[in-house]
Amino acid sequence: MRRRAALAALGALGPWAAARADEPATFNVVLRGGRIEPSRLEVPAGRRIKFVLRNDGPGPVEFENLELRVEKVLAPGSNSFIVVAPLRPGTYRFIDEFHPDTGRLEVVAK
Amino acid sequence: MINAFVVVWRESLEALLVISVLLAWIARQGDPGRLRRGVWAGLGGGVALAAALGAATFAAQSQLQGQALEAFQAGIALASAALVLQMVAWMRRHGAGMKRELEARAASASGATGVALVTAFAVAREGAETVVFLYGIGLERDTQGALALLAGAAAGLAAALLCAWAIARGARRLNMRTLLRTSELLLLAIATAMVGHGVERLIGMGWLPPLADPLWDSATLLDDAGGIGRVLADFAGYRARPTGALVAAYLLFWGVALVALRPRPVRPKQAPAH
């Protein structure tokens, strides 16, 4: 009886473990002088995406996409990352909120 | 310039909203002096904590340090939500019925600490980004450009203060019951937004599985990226495409809130010993 309960508990944890094992597709993004490099990225749809971010300065930046709830402040010289849930096919626009006129990144999920 | 205005206005408004709701409520209490001092102490502490957080953002260069900072900020968001809930429960217990001076004084001692903590966390959470942004202005702009941006930032803060003042002013016209209900609802809405903020940070770091993503899609009904949907997103945690984990966290929070705030049976009062 107790073993069955333990098995049921393990079964309930199954999907969670599977989700963790699914490694995200990784992309490097560099923010420099108010610009985002690259300015366009093609990423696979339906998979978790990991953006590895680096701010080369000179000032701080905020990597942001409101629709995907990404808001990440980076000091000059710092590294960070953000994991985004699987995207549906389409175009997603990220901006550097501290430099909204020049800092743009178009992410195309296919 | 516009950018600086928007960043500062948006970041200060939520914290100022919390403060003005608390002040409006405090003004009706038996011993407002001590509670009000609690708010100001919290404001001072919050500004200091925001500056420290901003400095930590600049110091955190490596991914590992960045992660620690992220965890801390997620912790602050979730702790704020819990504190606000506790505050609302406290306000309800010590609401309108606090007539006797002694009773009021004893209650306000514990209340002042709660008020100070809620204020400090709200200010620190919102202020840290402003600190980083303002410091960055000095780093990368020439003097003239920096001054223009600082003017925008000052205008943003002034606009947020004006909004908060108008709300606190308007709240004085409400009767006590309406004021209490409105404050509760507004504070709980903001606490829900804080829960969302914390949970989404944890998901973004890959520490919490999103579960179903999205659980539903109501973007055609009410988009959360602009207009009224954006306001609801900022102040009540609305999401057009919420993750399963987020909905679960909201349900947990409101479950706890409903239990904590359930109407208590009125205890028979002991006969006063004359």
Number of helices of chain A: 1
Main β-sheet description of chain A: 5 strands, mixed
Helical content band of chain B: over 70%
Please report the distance between the alpha carbons of the first and last residues of chain A.
Answer: 48 Å
Fraction in beta strands of chain A: over 45%
- Largest interface, counted with CB-CB under 8 A? A-B, 34 and 36 residues
Radius of gyration of chain A: 18 Å
CATH class of chain A: Mainly Beta
For this structure, the CATH topology of chain A is Immunoglobulin-like
Biggest β-sheet: strands ordered side by side in the sheet of chain A: 3-9-8-5-6
Shape of chain B: globular
Derived structural class of chain A: alpha+beta
Instruction: Sum up the overall morphology of chain A in one term.
Output: globular
Structural class of chain B: mainly alpha
Number of domains of chain B: 1
Which whole number gives the mean pLDDT of chain A? 84
Low-confidence stretches of chain B: none
- CATH 2nd-level architecture of chain A: Sandwich
Strand-helix topology:
The complex is a heterodimer of chains A (110) and B (274).
Chain A: H1 2-21, E1 25-32, E2 35-37, E3 40-43, E4 49-55, E5 61-65, E6 70-74, E7 79-84, E8 90-96, E9 104-109
Parallel strand pairs in A: 1-4, 3-9
Antiparallel strand pairs in A: 1-2, 4-7, 5-6, 5-8, 8-9
Chain B: H1 2-26, H2 32-59, H3 63-93, H4 101-140, H5 143-171, H6 176-204, H7 227-236, H8 244-260
Question: Any descriptors?
Answer:
heterodimer, A: 110 residues, alpha+beta, Immunoglobulin-like, five-stranded mixed sheet, four-stranded mixed sheet, 46% strand, B: 274 residues, mainly alpha, 8 helices, 76% helix, 0% strand, globular
Descriptive notes:
The complex is a heterodimer of chains A (110) and B (274). By secondary structure, chain A is an alpha+beta fold. In chain A, strands 3-9-8-5-6 form a five-stranded mixed sheet, with no helix packed on it. In chain A, strands 2-1-4-7 form a four-stranded mixed sheet, with no helix packed on it. Chain A is 18% helix and 46% strand. Chain A has one helix at 2-21; strands spanning 25-32, 35-37, 40-43, 49-55, 61-65, 70-74, 79-84, 90-96, 104-109. The model of chain A is unreliable at 17-21 (pLDDT under 50). In chain A, strand 1 and strand 2 (35-37) form a beta hairpin. Chain A has one domain: Immunoglobulin-like, CATH 2.60.40.420. Chain A contains one helix and nine strands; from the N terminus they run αβββββββββ. By secondary structure, chain B is an all-alpha fold. Chain B has one domain (2-260). Helix content of chain B is 76%, strand content 0%. In chain B, helix 1 packs antiparallel against helix 4. The longest helix of chain B has 40 residues, at 101-140. Chain B is globular, with a radius of gyration of 20 Å. The model of chain B has no long low-confidence stretch (mean pLDDT 85). The chains are: A alpha+beta (110), B mainly alpha (274). Chain A binds chain B through residues 16, 19-20, 24, 34, 50, 57-60, 62, 66-67, 69-70, 72-86, 97-98, 100-101, and chain B through 3, 7, 57-63, 66-67, 70, 129, 132-133, 135-137, 139-140, 200, 203-206, 209-211, 213-214, 224-225, 230, 233, 239, 243.
